[in-house]
Amino acid sequence: NPSSPKPPTSPSEKCGVLNVTKITEHGKKVRKNWTSSWAVLQGSMLLFAKGQGGGTSWFGVGQSKPEFTVDLRGGSVEWASKDKSSKKHVIEVKTRQGTELLIQSENDVVVNDWYRALLDTISTHAWE
Ligand code: I3S
């Protein structure tokens, strides 16, 4: 219903540093390339910007191009199975466009927070 009011910001807006790698692009398997990225969740979009020397500052986002952005609408999120990565606390994100990402942090609290936020986002935008 386009006339229904929406809150000004989504409860799932979030940012922080994560390790990320694509594993599939346009439905094709790609080679893993884990990088530390500044991740921003806004609306249904999840954006990654290469950190400036691993920094966590917003200035880095302004200065560097976003590495890539994925649209979470119609996507899915789950805990990655052991065969996807040997790392701990790994989330697998699949998009409707055929991109699969692994996101990870050594900090389990950080990862649990992201897991919840990503699920929120997907359910909030499920009918768009
Ligand atoms: O799933 P894989 O192929 O075992 O992933 C590992 C590789 O990408 C490896 O790099 P090489 O492409 O040089 O083999 C990475 O260094 C590892 O981190 C990858 O595995 P993990 O289990 O860390 O996701």
TrEMBL record:
Superkingdom of the organism of origin: Eukaryota
Residue span, PH domain: 22-123
Protein name: Rho GTPase-activating protein 12-like
Part of the whole protein covered: 449 to 576 of 902
Organism of provenance: Scomber scombrus
